[in-house]
């Protein structure tokens, strides 16, 4: 081929690759900026291994237990970091001893619709209780998120949240989410991180906790898709119904969309949990980084106007279709909402965007697709009515 043809051939392939993979370059840029040294330095600062500077004075955070001075120090330390990343601060005091910290990145188009990434910053134990895995790991991942998201602009508001008094029964997250309900706040999705550092058997299994509340199952689908599209490399263990023992449960209890990402609680539980030996030295660092990246990719994709965002926007008050069974093996049924059954297109693709089936709907509100020629794995059902698109993850299991 002549040079010009080769150029266009390569350009076409590159564009096809980018579109086909479904990777968003802004999300990829955020993931590329995640820095292990930065992430672990935050863990060291939150657990007393490294000093912090609070109001210009060097200090050390020991226990972050609600009754220890380290609790307030951790709050002040993160608050200063959030301000440095250009976030607006909201201190959410819910009792004499309890205070959540919210760092707000205001959306450019939908300032009142928000996605929240959160973790609890308090821990158990008395004076010597580093609480590195539980939950400096999640808190540091929220801090690192605030850093790596700071250079980008998002249509939807993003809130970076640190909850207090989780260890006494999700008190901080409950206070916040019940206040949000009574205040009619639009929380499009909440992603919780609690214990991301332990992978004792090195199998890269992470839990994805979900319950059928609001659009939580769609948000979990989004996380599964992000893990694949951005090649994050976790083996996700879907837990449905997810545990009630950490802060995502407060959001479910208040009717909000939420998921929780954490190390494997069943079968590979951190033996140093809630002990003075819960330190950074026990972390599986590559695993920790993967968990943080999964949360960031999911959050960024959502906040950039994603499946979840459009799924909840005015256009899609209801998803335009439902699929069953899911997982499926031989056949898939799709029921299309009556408003959408004419002149919309339905596609079945793999996660790389390869199309296996498509049909333009002409006054048709149910489809039956034969899956016999498809292998087991994750697929995507895409819907487009010429104005908006909508997707849902399909699992084929043979
Ligand atoms: Zn915890």
Account of the 3D structure:
The structure is a single chain. The strands form 4 sheets. The protein has an 8-stranded mixed β-sheet with strand order 3-4-6-5-7-10-8-9, with helices on both faces. Helix 5 (132-149) packs across helix 9 (285-303). The two termini are 44 Å apart. It has 2 domains: 22-311, Zn peptidases (Aminopeptidase, 3-Layer(aba) Sandwich), CATH 3.40.630.10; 319-396, Immunoglobulin-like. The chain has 398 residues and is an alpha+beta fold. The protein contains 10 helices and 17 strands. The radius of gyration is 22 Å and the shape is globular. A hairpin with a 4-residue loop joins strand 13 and strand 14. The chain is 33% helix and 27% strand. Zinc ion binds next to helix 5. Zinc ion is lined by residues 120, 134-135, 166, 194-195, 246.
Helices and strands: which structural class? alpha+beta
Please state the overall shape, judged from the principal axes of the Cα atoms.
globular
**Count of helical regions:** 10
Q: Main β-sheet: number of strands, strand sense, barrel status?
A: 8 strands, mixed
Output the strand order for the largest sheet: 3-4-6-5-7-10-8-9
Strand content: 25-35%
The first-level CATH class name of the largest domain: Alpha Beta
Arithmetic mean of pLDDT = 88
* Bound ligand species: zinc ion
What would CATH call the architecture of the largest domain?
3-Layer(aba) Sandwich
Annotated CATH homologous superfamily of the largest domain: Zn peptidases
Write the element-wise H/E pattern from the N-terminal end onward. HHHEEHEEEHEHEEHEHEHHEEEEEEE
**For the terminal residues, how far apart are their CA atoms?**
44 Å
Bin the helical content.
Answer: 25-40%
Tell me the number of structural domains: 2
Could you name the CATH topology of the largest domain? Aminopeptidase
- Gyration radius, in Å: 22 Å
Strand tally is: 17
């Amino acid at each position: 081929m002549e040079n010009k043809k080769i150029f266009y051939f390569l350009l076409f392939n590159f564009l096809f690759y980018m579109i086909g993979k479904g990777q968003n370059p802004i999300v990829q840029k955020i993931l590329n900026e995640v820095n292990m040294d930065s992430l672990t330095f935050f863990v060291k600062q939150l657990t007393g291994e490294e000093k912090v500077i609070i109001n210009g004075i060097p200090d050390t955070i020991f226990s972050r237990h609600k009754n220890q001075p380290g609790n307030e120090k951790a709050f002040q330390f993160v608050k200063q970091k959030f301000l440095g990343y250009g976030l607006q601060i909201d201190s959410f005091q819910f009792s004499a001893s309890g205070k959540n910290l919210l760092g707000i990145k205001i959306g450019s188009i939908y300032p009142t619709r928000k996605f929240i990434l959160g973790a609890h910053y308090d821990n158990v134990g008395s004076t010597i209780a580093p609480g590195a895995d539980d939950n400096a790991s999640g808190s540091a991942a929220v801090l690192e998120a605030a850093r790596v998201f700071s250079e980008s602009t998002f249509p939807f508001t993003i809130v970076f949240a640190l909850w207090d008094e989780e260890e006494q029964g999700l008190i901080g997250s409950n206070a916040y989410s019940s206040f949000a309900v009574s205040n009619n706040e639009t929380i499009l999705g909440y992603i919780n991180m609690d214990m991301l550092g332990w992978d004792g058997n090195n199998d890269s299994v992470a839990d994805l906790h979900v319950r059928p509340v609001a659009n939580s199952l769609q948000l979990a689908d989004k996380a599964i898709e992000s893990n694949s599209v951005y090649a994050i490399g976790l083996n996700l263990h879907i837990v449905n119904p997810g545990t009630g023992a950490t802060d995502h449960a407060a959001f479910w209890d208040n009717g909000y969309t939420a998921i929780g990402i954490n190390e494997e609680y069943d079968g590979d539980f951190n033996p140093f949990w809630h002990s003075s030996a819960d330190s950074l030295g026990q972390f599986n660092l590559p695993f920790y980084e993967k968990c943080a990246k999964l949360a960031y990719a999911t959050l960024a994709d959502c906040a950039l106007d994603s499946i979840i965002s459009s799924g909840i926007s005015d256009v899609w008050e209801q998803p335009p279709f439902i699929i069953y069974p899911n997982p499926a093996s031989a056949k898939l049924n799709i029921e299309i909402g009556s408003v959408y059954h004419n002149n919309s297109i339905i596609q079945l693709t793999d996660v790389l965007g390869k199309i296996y089936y498509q049909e333009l709907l002409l006054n048709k509100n149910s489809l039956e697709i034969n899956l016999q020629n498809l292998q087991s794995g994750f697929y995507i059902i895409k819907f487009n009515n010429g104005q908006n698109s909508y997707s849902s993850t399909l699992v084929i299991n043979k």
